[in-house]
Amino acid sequence: MGTIDNLPPLREVIRTHDLQARKSMGQNFLLDLNLTAKIARQAGDLTKCDVLEIGPGPGGLTRGLLSEGARHVLAIEKDARCLPALAEIVAACPGRLTVLEGDALDIDPLAHLTPPIRVAANLPYNVGTELLVRWLTPQDWPPFWLSLTLMFQREVAERIVAQPGSKTYGRLAILAQWRADARIVLQLPPEAFTPPPKVSSSVVHLQALPKPRFKADATVLSRVVAAAFNQRRKMLRAALKGLAPDIEDRLIAAGLKPTDRAEQIPLEGFCALARSMAQT
Ligand code: SAM
Fold first, then answer.
1. What is the pLDDT of residues 103-124, one digit of tens each?
2. Which of 159, 222, 242, 269 is the most exposed place for a label (fewest CB within 10 A)?
3. Which residues, at least 6 apart from 242, have a Cβ–Cβ distance to it below 8 Å?
4. Do 71 and 96 reside in the same domain of the chain?
5. DSSP letter, residue 210
């Protein structure tokens, strides 16, 4: 796998290309290649897969994904300053890395990828959450990806794997656990990053299920869950009253009590409610 091992250390890459981290781009870089290889290994067997990486920055995780044998990596980076550093990795791995400059929220990567596809990223928190929700809520299932391996602030990671009854249980837990197996696979202290962020981070691995755990329409489920947790302390009949005039009947038809609160309702209950809401 040739010359990827001969690339300069990431600290040198940052110096050479003057890549001072920018807060506005959510830049906290991983410069330890042992650590980036460890994260890449959490993404599963990459050898027969294309990997979509969002936000490669100076390329630490990109190098990890390539050295772990990814067939092809498509990396989408918004900060044009990173492109010369990434071009050095392209040159070291002919045909295995494609870099697109732009905002991952605006680019459709599928034209550049061949299934099976895994996704791996260390992204700013707001972009990461928005992309995660998009990747979890396409109308059809299974999705374009086999797995997502994503770095989040620890607090966000805990929301993704939360169980009913906990304070962190909400929209992210339901959308993630409805259609995927979600696990926290690594915890990283702030010092793992340059510059260190204020909070700890976690890597979450989500494996797409072949079928959702319970039947529901993705759009209806998203809407119901968003409304229910928007006012999580209220009883469901009050929190959801804007969604349907006969909400109490629909809650009862779904086997729920109108006086229940969102954080007590398991995934199965929300899916039953989405089915009841979809009935005309
Ligand atoms: N993956 C690198 C690493 O682990 O060292 C960089 C991680 S840094 C937390 C986030 C990266 O995402 C930065 O390179 C930043 O420029 C990029 N980025 C931020 N917003 C983005 C967006 N909307 N689309 C694509 N890349 C984005």
1. 999 999 999 999 999 999 999 8
2. 242
3. 227
4. yes
5. S
In short, whether 55's Cβ falls inside 6 Å of ligand 1 is: yes
Q: pLDDT for 170-184, tens place per residue?
A: 999 999 999 999 999
Q: Is the Cβ atom of 199 under 6 angstroms away from ligand 1?
A: no
For residue 30, the domain's CATH number is 3.40.50.150
How far is it, in rounded angstroms, from Cα 262 to Cα 105?
A: 30
pTM higher than 0.85 for the full model? Answer: yes
* Same structural domain, 228 and 204: no
Which residues of the chain, if any, have pLDDT below 70?
Answer: 1-2
At residue 3, the pLDDT reads 84
Written as one letter, the residue type at 118 is R
Cα(66)–Cα(136) distance, integer angstroms: 26
Number of structural domains the chain divides into: 2
d(CA 154, CA 274): 29
The rounded Å distance from CA 78 to ligand 1 centre is: 7
Task: Compute the distance between CA of residue 185 and CA of residue 13 in angstroms, rounded to an integer.
Answer: 28
Atom 1, ligand 1: residue with shortest CA distance = 56
86 plus 172 within the same structural domain:
yes
- The amino acid present at 235, given as its one-letter code, is M
Domain range for residue 30? 10-208
pLDDT in tens, 150-174: 999 999 999 999 999 999 999 999 9
Closest atom of ligand 1 to 103 CA is: 24
Question: What pLDDT does residue 1 have?
Answer: 45
Q: How far is the CA of 33 from the centre of ligand 1 (A)?
A: 17
Query: What CATH number is attached to the domain comprising 240?
Result: 1.10.8.100
